Amino acid sequence: METDQIVLRQTNWSWSGYWRRIRETLRFLRITPVYYLSGGRIEYVSEDFRDLIIRIPHTWITRNLVNSVFGGSLFAATDPIYMAMLMQALGRDYFVIDKEGRMEYIKPLTSAGFARFELSQEVIDSIIQECGAKKKSVRSFPVVIQNDKGTVVARGERTLYIRRMNTENVNSRLKRRM
Fold first, then answer.
1. In the chain, where are the structural domains located?
2. Do the bridges between strand 51-56 and strand 41-45 make them parallel or antiparallel, or are there none, so unpaired?
3. pTM for the full model?
4. Fewest CB within 10 angstroms: 15, 112, 153, 155, which?
5. Is the pLDDT of residue 23 over 90?
6. In degrees rounded to 5, what are phi and psi of residue 142?
7. Are 116 and 51 in contact (CB under 8 A)?
8. pLDDT tens digit string along 35-85?
């Protein structure tokens, strides 16, 4: 083995490692200043990290000039969720990043807002298949924010770029930097 070549370590799957990665992801989302200051709070996470509910409270931090929740808070609170969920579902062999986001504000949010994010196994399997065939996948996921009465106040979409990483590309990039 050459000294300047870095070999990615093989990870053996275990329940302890699985739960550790989920705890790390949740801790990151809770303490990251950008996410924390958006007002978004994670209310529920399923055991497999494929179903997640966030709450956006109506507080002095998230209020705007007309006493409704600031649209930027709604957008920022929903921004990293699908990316984090896909990173957990696909593992470290895949590169996942936000490509585009859009939000349509239907009516002012004057109470707490909630958004549910779900990933099905079929979607994950199709992403893996597409990345195997075309080396990349671009997927859009819906975002719906409701108030505490269940009325839809904002609707949007997150587009993610997903690509399978291989050791040759990683090692060649690292060699160029040295």
1. 15-177
2. antiparallel
3. 0.75
4. 15
5. no
6. -80, 150
7. yes
8. 666 778 888 888 888 888 888 888 888 888 888 888 888 898 888 889 888
- Cα(146)–Cα(155) distance, rounded to whole angstroms? 9
Cβ-based burial of 56 (10 A; exposed 0-12, middle 13-18, buried ≥19): buried
- The secondary structure of the chain, three-state, reads CCCCCCCCCCCCCCHHHHHHHHHHHHHHHHHCHHHHHHCCEEEEECCCCCEEEEEECCCCCCECCCCCECHHHHHHHHCCHHHHHHHHHHCCCEEEEEEEEEEEECCCCCCCEEEEEECCHHHHHHHHHHHHHHCEEEEEEEEEEEECCCCEEEEEEEEEEEEECCHHHHHHHHHHHC
In the chain, the amino acid numbered 79 is: D
Which CATH number is 15-177 given?
3.10.129.10
How far apart are the C-alpha atoms of 1 and 106, rounded to whole Å?
59
- Mean of all residue pLDDT scores within the chain: 79
Q: Measuring CA to CA, which residue among 50, 68, 86 is closest to residue 145?
A: 68
Cβ contacts of 157 within 8 Å, gap of 6 or more? 100, 101, 102, 140, 141, 142, 143
Contact 127, 162 (CB under 8 A): yes
Which residues are paired to 14 by β-bridges?
none
Among 118, 99, 108, 102, which Cα is nearest to 153's?
Answer: 108
